């Protein structure tokens, strides 16, 4: 029998014929020698066609990489699960062979190749679901381990190795742990799961000397390590990323630094973590890095997960509430069944297991297990579920996970939804191995049977009523009214009013419905209400505060999350009019007056700062402030925070050293800080200078040594994550010699650097230099000298060289910050973005020696000055000014709605429509059109300036 005759026979046995036939034809066209291979090895031919019929994604992989067939020929015969160690060895060989590839491309390709073997055994049913998910989890571990080692090698070369000091004063290495949560944490990873990670490090300290780019604090190092690892693993390639990484489950969520110290994590889980966050730790483990760090954490917090003092009913009620809060965050598809989140789906099986494990695990440690099926088995052994329920839930788990795999591996998408189209639905049924004659009815009947049995068990488990936990009784069998649920939850916490609770709930529900985004408001309010349950003593809120809270949560996901983490911030919402002007410096200084340690200083500063930020945000969300009226207080708050941080740093130096003298230091701001345009999530771009003529403030230390220690404390006061959160990311990269230079420079060395060694790209940054903190008289003298000199240097430099260097730096930043396709619009770094305006403006200011004048040093004012002096013609000015004003407004609303992000939400996402509405646009399409128009105008103006086609 010829190969083609064999193919025809095999095709008739497959659920779908077009894709495998097309793959076979293309393989023989590009590799005629495969005809002989398939003739000799009919089993390989059958496997290749089978993979194509079940997964067009893997058919494309084989077509693009025919060499993988030789590898598959060896791998297909052994169904044994590959361990992480074996996969790591395979990855090392693959990396050696593909050494010319960028790491993120290589890792993506390696994962895709390995999926050929894993999915083939899955389809052939030569492995169980448990074995399949175990190998998928081992594969993720191997890739994360490789990326971690590569990232550490690169950073160690640049900055030295992280170090700390033990109790005996000995130098010990800093350790880093990638803690996996969710499906990866329990070895239940599927084919297209996000991987939920938390980055932990052992303790604070400094990197060793000897790195090419100087030293960093351990926090800075490990944050960079996490960022670099994520680029290697999750950067998009033409074949997709290796994995999508989700780090939002770290302590303090998105408002915190990317990496968290062990002590900070312990404090968070002890004092602040919500019930659902503790529940996530059930399925946690070390995926890569230090097992010691993870073990230390769990040794301390494990008893907080499984608490013997919590009653069974109370534990079940808390898990039920956690499920409700999670369900509220998804946009439900009313027409299609969701295998994961739908009625009787995978999520309900997991929550049955986790609820009973939490409820009884405090008194029976044997019940504690990460894997869902193991937990179900142990629950049955303890008669906490019946043998029949155990059998039904296990069967449903296997069926639904297999169905999830079939849906995801069709095109490699993170989907859990069964298609509605009858033809596509029938194809799913055939891929689930139901006979072709009546596959769809058989499939539908099996799906209905399994989900009904799961729902019956779920209803029984969560039928417990809690006499101690005051929680609403959710109807989990139907699509819930999230608005009504959130309103009822919040109404219970409103202090006594003339309204009954039911009447008050109705008023709050109306407020939610009329808020900017009812779904966002309801989701945030449900989380806040759950947090309010934990407040001791109970935190009563007034009706005006409740209304203001609804408005803020409807407008801003960022502020909703902030209040959910600390409900007491509700009392900071502005509900009285008019309010007296704020003196931020006085309020922050007063907040730290009574603190007696560095840690208490930091916590006190963060509590006061958060209250003030919430006040600004609430007024902004209520449209009471124009953009300049938001930028001004945000800048004043940042300046006040820095001055308080200087005070904290000086106090701590006094605690650590004797006979401390005066620290004469100035903080010079750049970027948005220097121009007075701070926004939500803005970094603090600064240079710190000290008076090198005065005596060193610390006996026995040189000026540089003393001030570097001082600045380390200053930066920690601003950027360290404590249980009260963190304030700002501090960026010192524009200091003399960048990361190779000391954290602080004397005034003389800074001015000498500008005079003799600073590059044109640094001149462009120093255009916005402003003394913002510390000794302002001292700082303003330095500022004046530096700004005067860079403008002298700028006008003395050949215009072509100045223009070419400006363009080079601008294009490098655009390339470095390029987003993956379909990742949204970057209105800062993208073509026609705000950087076009920044670079064009500062180039002209240097070329024509036009420094900023007066207190208003904003880009908008700089553009007006350039027009008034003839450096810009009217048309170019209009393009830049109008476009910049529009982009700043869009950027601000995006920061308010979803927080700081490298790109806007996609036009089809609800957050994009929210931004459009807040800007007064007719809709998302109108905003997209206007953005394209304004960015096009900006870029044309930029090109005219950079081509010297304007005045």
Detail the topology: elements first, then pairings:
Layout: H1 3-11, H2 18-30, H3 34-40, H4 42-54, H5 56-64, H6 68-75, H7 84-97, H8 103-124, H9 129-159, E1 162-165, E2 171-173, E3 176-181, H10 182-185, E4 195-201, E5 206-207, H11 218-234, E6 245-246, E7 259-261, H12 262-271, H13 275-280, E8 285-289, H14 291-305, H15 312-328, H16 346-361, H17 372-381, H18 387-411, H19 422-431, H20 439-461, H21 482-491, H22 501-513, H23 518-533, H24 543-555, H25 557-565, H26 584-591, H27 598-621, H28 627-656, E9 665-669, H29 671-675, E10 684-690, H30 703-719, E11 730-731, E12 744-746, H31 747-756, H32 760-766, E13 770-774, H33 776-796, H34 799-816, H35 834-847, H36 859-868, H37 874-898, H38 910-918, H39 924-946
Parallel strand pairs: 4-6, 4-7, 10-11, 10-12
Antiparallel strand pairs: 1-2, 1-5, 3-4, 3-8, 9-10, 9-13
Helix pairs in contact: 1-4, 2-4, 2-5, 3-4, 4-5, 4-8, 7-9, 8-9, 8-11, 9-11, 12-14, 15-16, 16-17, 16-20, 17-18, 18-20, 19-20, 21-22, 21-23, 22-24, 23-24, 23-25, 24-25, 26-27, 26-28, 27-28, 28-30, 31-33, 34-35, 35-36, 35-39, 36-37, 37-38, 37-39
Radius of gyration: 30 Å
How large is the share of residues in beta strands?
A: 5-15%
Pick out the low-confidence regions. 328-334, 464-481
Query: Describe the biggest sheet?
Result: 5 strands, mixed
Tell me how many strands there are: 13
Average pLDDT confidence is 88
Structural class: mainly alpha
Choose one word for the global shape. Answer: globular
How many helices? The count is 39
Helical amount among residues, as a percent range? Answer: 55-70%
Q: End-to-end distance, in Å?
A: 79 Å
